[in-house]
Amino acid sequence: MSEIAFGSAVELAAAIQRREIGCVELLQHFLGRVDRYNERLNAIIVQRRDEALAEAREADAALARGDDVGPLHGVPMTVKESYDVTGTPTTWGVPRLKDNIAEGDALSIERLRRAGAIIFGKTNVPLLLSDFQSYNEIYGTTNNPWDVKRAPGGSSGGSAATLAAGLTGLETGSDIGGSIRNPAHFCGVFGHKPTWNLLPPRGHAMPGVLTPSDISVIGPLARSAADLETAVRVMAGPDEIASRGLKLELPGLAKAPSDLKVAVWRDDEAAPVDARVSARVDLVADALASLGAKLDYDARPVQAAHSHETYQRLLQATMAARIPEEQYLRAVARADALAPDDNSLAAISARAQVARFRDWSAANEARTHLRWQWHRFFAEYDVLLTPIMATSAIEHDHRPMGERTVNVNGEAQDYFRQVFWSGLTGVAYLPSTIVPTGPDDAGLPIGVQIAGPEYGDLITIGVAQLLEREGFAFRAPPGFDGA
User: Fold this and answer.
1) What values do phi and psi take at 271, rounded to 5?
2) Residues contacting residue 45 through CB under 8 Å, at least 6 positions apart
3) Residue 88 has what DSSP assignment?
4) Of 67, 231, 378, 463, which is the most exposed, with the fewest CB atoms less than 10 Å away?
5) How many CB atoms are located within 10 Å of the residue 266 CB?
6) Residue 455: CB partners within 8 Å, gap ≥ 6?
7) DSSP class of residue 162?
8) Beta strands of 208-361 (E only): which ranges?
9) Residues 217/196, Cβ–Cβ less than 8 Å
10) pLDDT digits (tens, 9 = 90+) for 69-95
11) By the 8 A CB rule, do 440 and 271 touch?
């Protein structure tokens, strides 16, 4: 039954509805794989087995009664630890929150449950969801199933590792600096960063916080592009306040492949990528070209340096809002100590962490201009292909972040320089889908980012579905093929 473990959520739901497998039987299959493989990965760090089995029994009974069921009926799934799931800890990897037990479900979890998903566990994250690796003092370190000496990415690293190893049917994470897209790339699965606030994030927040965080989104990871579409449709739409006057109607990919116009941004001096990574961008572009799509390697929607500076100003302010008061006061002192004429990116970031509202508003205005530039760009182009990270999965590195580097084409690159590629679309609220391209010559997966216009989520996912049919599909890592 190992093929069941690596099936898509859509396939699993269809098998349940055809009565080829029962909901309890499928859940027990995944739980058995958790028992066999999770110790190697430390990806699933909270389990609710008894509750999930009871829900699976009721799901089987609903089918026996002939009840109408949702598109994920009976599909076992795990979710990122940072989502509220009733009766489970929501810590964001922060030790002082280890006893923060959720009293209710996040809105997205409610919607997944209504669609029939059975949530049996939660997956690991880094401290404050702020790293390309997934480790913390509460739950320890999560390993990449392709190479346990390497990180699965972050901050949705547990999500991607669990999926890749065939321990769950579906996952959902979050992303402010590539936290869905980076793990999808590192672990060889599909991931989707939605248009900002398309999927309401209530219940994915620090305790007591209701305001949606700037830039940050929640969104799915999966073993197929069809699963991304299903999950987005389930979780998207206005919340109870906005639904009084708003209704969601997302456009799909209406064009034939031969009518697509595709821009390609394969590398940039602002954040160079490994030659093996840029070659995969070319590979995806060539596949679309073979179907008749028109490619443009020179088109650029925004000026790279300006976009990245704007992103850093807004990102740093948002991230600083999450830190404890004493840490914030140290950030204030660092910013105050800067020379007035220091306009380095590090200085810009330090000032942004403690920005006055006037300064934040100026950055937000710059962001709005970027959004309009992208809007005009996507009037001419359907999607943009880019890398998402400079390299394939990195080795575990738990040194202070300022000491970390990444080797790119034989040269050391600053660890966080890679957020350039996630920030391109993040700062402008754009959807981005990661499609896997298979392992490189070192046996490590590489993903490619497909970016599209605001609310063009089903367009980027549609291109991913097109590419999946052309062979850009999930592959299981070696060593996890047992039942």
Assistant:
1) -155, 75
2) 81, 121, 122, 123, 124, 139, 140, 158
3) S
4) 67
5) 18
6) 195, 198, 250, 251, 431
7) H
8) 217-222, 261-264, 294-296
9) yes
10) 999 999 999 999 999 999 999 999 999
11) no
* DSSP secondary structure letter of residue 89: B
Structure tokens at 117: 């998903």
Structure tokens at 348: 């810009």
Closest CA to 479 of 171, 188, 147, 1: 147
Amino acid (one-letter) located at 350: A
Between CA 211 and CA 308 the distance in angstroms is 25
Token pair belonging to 427: 């700062």
Instruction: Identify the three-state secondary structure at position 383.
Output: strand
Q: Provide the β-strand partners of residue 137.
A: none
Nearest in space to 133 (alpha carbons), one of 427, 477, 436, 415: 415
pLDDT < 70 regions, the chain: 1-2, 482-483
Residue where the block lists tokens 């298979």: 438
Query: Helix, strand, or coil here: 282?
Result: helix
Torsion on CA atoms 419, 232, 160, 123, rounded to nearest 10: 110
Contacts of 86 (CB under 8 A, 6+ apart): 102, 103, 104, 105
pTM of the shown model: 0.97
Number of residues assigned to the chain: 483
Catalytic center residues:
80, 155, 179
CB-CB contact of 173 with 179 (8 Å): yes
Full 3-state SS string of 243-300: HHCCCCCCCCCCCCHHHCEEEECCCCCCCCCCHHHHHHHHHHHHHHHHCCCEEECCCC
> Residue type for 249, please?
E
Alpha helices in 181-235 (DSSP H): 181-187, 225-235
Q: How many helices (H) and strands (E) does the chain have?
A: 15, 15
pLDDT in the model for residue 3: 87
